[in-house]
Amino acid sequence: GKGKLSKGLAYLVGTESPPDILAVDEAGSVVSRPFKIPQYITTNAKDNIGFEAMTVARGGALGLDKDEFYVVATIEYAPNGQHEVLVWKLADGDPDAPPLPVKTLSYTASVANGKPMGIVEFEPLENSLLVLERAYDPAYGSNILLCEAAPAEDRLEKQRLFTWDKAGMRNGEGQQMKLENKEVEMPPVDNYEGMCLVPAEDEVDATKSRRLLLVN
């Protein structure tokens, strides 16, 4: 996970083992730990399944103050797929007195081949979050799912945008998707764990389409 810390002092990096949020300088050296991780998160998280997904979002994506920025993170795999999405106010980050999350939102991961999928990336929109879920099974290969999740009180309600697996890519209605301007169906999926919205070419016209970059 990544995000720019307030005042331009450092970059935020989410770690997996143990789950933590570090402030690092441009050389990659750890400057501080500006946010407090709840003890039950660090105690129960297993090795290498910590904060795989992390981002900085405006409050509108989380049901909070639209003029404020917040740090959002969750562990990759949660018991029974029931995730707690932790939210800290970015401006409250303090290495001397790191704050606990100001809000926790529940998110239910999808199921693939009988097992809950992992959450590997968030990307903020104005009033919701894009959530990238993934799973891997030696018998089935990779399975990638993209959802849009909107805040509803203490939870995130999601809508499936597409599923991508060894059979190709299907939209939220289950229809097979094709490559842009071609009749060729999407190829089998790889192990995608990174996601980012490409900056808009026309910042004046908010109706212009945005491209979503996936990284395997």
Mean pLDDT: 88
Structural class: mainly beta
The dominant shape is globular
Give helix and strand order, one letter per element, not per position: EEEEHEEEEEEEEEEEEE
**Count of helix runs:** 1
Range of strand content:
35-45%
Helix content: under 10%
Largest sheet: 5 strands, antiparallel
Distance between the termini: 15 Å
Rg computed from alpha carbons, rounded to a whole number of angstroms: 18 Å
Strand order, biggest sheet? Answer: 11-12-13-14-15
Low-confidence segments? 1-8
In total, how many beta strands? 17
Describe the overall structure.
The chain is an all-beta fold. 3% of the residues lie in helices and 45% in strands. It contains one helix and 17 strands. The strands form five sheets. It has a five-stranded antiparallel beta sheet, with no helix packed on it. Strand 3 and strand 4 form a beta hairpin. The radius of gyration is 18 Å and the shape is globular. It starts with a strand and ends with a strand. The N terminus is likely disordered.
Main traits of this protein?
216 residues; mainly beta; five-stranded antiparallel β-sheet; four-stranded antiparallel β-sheet; 1 helix; disordered N terminus
Helices and strands, with pairings:
Blueprint lengths: L1 E3 L6 E5 L4 E5 L5 E3 L6 H6 L8 E6 L10 E6 L7 E8 L13 E6 L2 E2 L2 E2 L1 E7 L4 E9 L3 E12 L2 E11 L2 E4 L22 E4 L14 E4 L1
Antiparallel strand pairs: 1-2, 2-3, 3-4, 5-6, 6-7, 7-8, 9-10, 11-12, 12-13, 13-14, 14-15, 16-17
